[in-house]
Automatic annotation (TrEMBL), chains A, B:
Pathway: Nucleotide-sugar biosynthesis; UDP-N-acetyl-alpha-D-glucosamine biosynthesis; N-acetyl-alpha-D-glucosamine 1-phosphate from alpha-D-glucosamine 6-phosphate (route I): step 1/2
Protein name, entry field: Glucosamine 6-phosphate N-acetyltransferase
Domain N-acetyltransferase: 13-156
Keywords, in A-Z order: Acyltransferase, Transferase
Pfam family, one: Acetyltransf_1
GO BP annotations listed: UDP-N-acetylglucosamine biosynthetic process
Domain of life, per lineage: Eukaryota
Organism (species): Komagataella phaffii (strain GS115 / ATCC 20864) (Yeast)
GO molecular function: aralkylamine N-acetyltransferase activity; glucosamine 6-phosphate N-acetyltransferase activity
The reaction(s) this protein catalyses: D-glucosamine 6-phosphate + acetyl-CoA = N-acetyl-D-glucosamine 6-phosphate + CoA + H(+)
Amino acid sequence: MQPVSVPALPQGYNLRRVGKEDFQDKNLFKTLSILTTVGDIPEPKFHALIEYWNDRKEIYNPMVITNAENVIIATGMLFVEHKLIHGGGKVGHIEDISVNPSEQGKKLGLIMIRNLIQIAQTEGCYKVILDCDEKNVRFYEKCGMKIEGVEMGYRF
Amino acid sequence: MQPVSVPALPQGYNLRRVGKEDFQDKNLFKTLSILTTVGDIPEPKFHALIEYWNDRKEIYNPMVITNAENVIIATGMLFVEHKLIHGGGKVGHIEDISVNPSEQGKKLGLIMIRNLIQIAQTEGCYKVILDCDEKNVRFYEKCGMKIEGVEMGYRF
């Protein structure tokens, strides 16, 4: 199997896992709040969630991109589901992709997606899926993905 | 919040978690193979997966419905993702829904879905999502779900 190609980040930008230290400057929260409601997360709850994710690294891959000023400006999660079907196969689920609009035009969304697909390949997934709005289909096609179906939801 | 309503199973039918004993009669595999490729799973690999799921019960809820002859005739998985967004909220993902065609007309698919939604509610999820083919949208609407978006995929 060919390794997934991943475009390079701009000079000084980095991709890394979310850590407990990301509570302080709030840039993780600011970037996620572009996507959806983040809500109030006190520091102990944030630390507990990071520990929960870190204790399950084979499942949770919460990633961020930082710019040359070391500020978080993009987010993305890959979590890995272990199935019975497909010979006991794994599926990667991409979630919570957000890029700060001030950083547009640098292909950071595409770079994040391709990195998450690469992690999924390394973890031995047979496919990666995500759900998006109709208006973002074109972007995910540029990332190498195809329409597979319809997302249905039930909200409490 | 109102508890989710769940229709009753037919007399003698039961909903339960998948267990190691389900390797023997192969009815779990037969039911899943209606949905997709199951592939070859040797018994030790099956047992290891059941242990993996059982060690992570707050994430994996692999459920089956058995008929009056104690034969597995429907499958469904709910797995629970712990997020940072929505105040550190949880999302339930429904996967691998399959019902044996010989049992059609008993609303087993709907009963499975409503049970998985109920588990998600008990686990404190703020929403439940699943991906399906266009042709199954009407069925999931009958289960109380709504179209939320487009599923995109990347296959290795």
